[in-house]
Amino acid sequence: xxxxxxxxxxxxxxxxxxxxxxxxxxxxxxxxxxxxxxxxxxxxxxxxxxxxxxxxxxxxxxxxxxxxxxxxxxxxxxxxx
Length: 81
Known about the structure:
Blueprint: H1 3-14, E1 39-41, H2 43-54, H3 63-76, E2 77-79
Parallel strand pairs: 1-2
Helix pairs in contact: 1-2, 2-3
């Protein structure tokens, strides 16, 4: 995943007018583990993972969690399309 793709995913994650609840992220579960193999995925799936990892109930974002998705996603998420 490139920096531009990560930025696009975060912009999408921040827009709660766009529903991502039907986007499957099961293939991304465990992405932080050392033995996680790179997977093909979509911007929408990364955006949903960002919401799952970083959206807080008070409306703020856990930017450490978002950074983790971006940093690990650089070598583990191969974006389709």
